[in-house]
UniProtKB/TrEMBL annotation:
It holds the Pfam family CTP_transf_like. The keyword Cytoplasm does not apply. Residues 51-150 form the Cytidyltransferase-like domain. NCBIfam families: cyt_tran_rel. It comes from the Eukaryota. It comes from Perkinsus marinus (strain ATCC 50983 / TXsc). Belongs to the cytidylyltransferase family. GO terms for molecular function: ethanolamine-phosphate cytidylyltransferase activity. This is ethanolamine-phosphate cytidylyltransferase. Pathway: Phospholipid metabolism; phosphatidylethanolamine biosynthesis; phosphatidylethanolamine from ethanolamine: step 2/3; Lipid metabolism. GO terms for biological process: phosphatidylethanolamine biosynthetic process. The lineage of its organism: Eukaryota, Sar, Alveolata, Perkinsozoa, Perkinsea. Keywords: Lipid biosynthesis, Lipid metabolism, Nucleotidyltransferase, Phospholipid biosynthesis, Phospholipid metabolism, Transferase. One of its GO terms (cellular component) is cytoplasm. Its EC number is 2.7.7.14.
């Protein structure tokens, strides 16, 4: 179980610099950048606040449609996003692929989302419900989290007891982070060979390049 990819670059000295297919990008997340992605709409007294939480790693159409259905349960959608440590404990391996700030920006950019809680608590407590004035808690029908993570058992206990828990059926139950990661790994060699061929063609072009007089 590791999450080294979230905090340091690949330092494998056996990989030739010319054979690398990409470089590490460190995005500097600022409050202004987050604000540019968010809706900036505050909930009114008339709004029905719907809350949904999760990892939202590698944001995809499955996430978007689930959030759309959750929003339809009320008028204001509040999304809680778990921090990196929590996601790693839940899913293990190298998850999350994207760090917390990247996942926050992806979710904030979704048109159905009104507000985001950064590093949301795993357990939905009465205090959270009261503080954020939550009327409905939406729960996805499919969870890819490890069943061995004990906190997951009591995740929705409070909203269920209060009678505000609603299940949102996923339109893409098989589209998970693991599925996307598998596709990427499967097509990695094709991607590398394609770029290598393009690089060879480009090098040949520049080696044989001749001056062409302009008319």
């Amino acid at each position: 179980m590791t999450k080294d990819h979230l905090c340091k670059p690949n330092t494998d000295e056996n990989i030739d610099l010319n054979e690398r297919t990409g470089t590490l990008v460190r995005m500097l997340t600022t409050t202004r950048r987050i604000a540019e992605f968010s809706s900036r709409r505050a909930p009114s007294a008339e709004d029905t606040v719907v809350y949904v939480d999760g990892a939202f790693d590698m944001f995809n159409v499955g996430h978007a449609t689930t959030l759309e259905k959750a929003k339809a349960l009320g008028t204001y959608l509040l999304v809680g996003i778990f921090d990196d440590e929590t996601v790693n404990k839940m899913k293990g391996g190298n998850y999350p692929v994207m760090n917390l700030h990247e996942r926050v920006l992806n979710v904030s950019a979704c048109k159905h989302v009104d507000e985001v809680i950064i590093g949301a608590p795993v357990e939905i407590s009465e205090d959270l419900i009261r503080t954020m004035n939550i009327s409905i808690v939406a729960q996805g029908s499919i969870s890819s989290f490890s069943t061995q993570y004990e906190i997951l058992v009591r995740l929705f206990v409070v909203p269920k007891r209060l009678g505000i828990l609603r299940e949102v059926e996923s339109d893409y139950p098989h589209l998970t982070g693991a599925t996307i990661a598998t596709r990427i790994i499967k097509n990695c060699l094709t991607y590398i060979n394609r770029n290598k061929k393009r690089s060879e063609i480009e090098s040949e072009y520049y080696c044989n390049k001749q001056h062409i007089a302009e008319q």
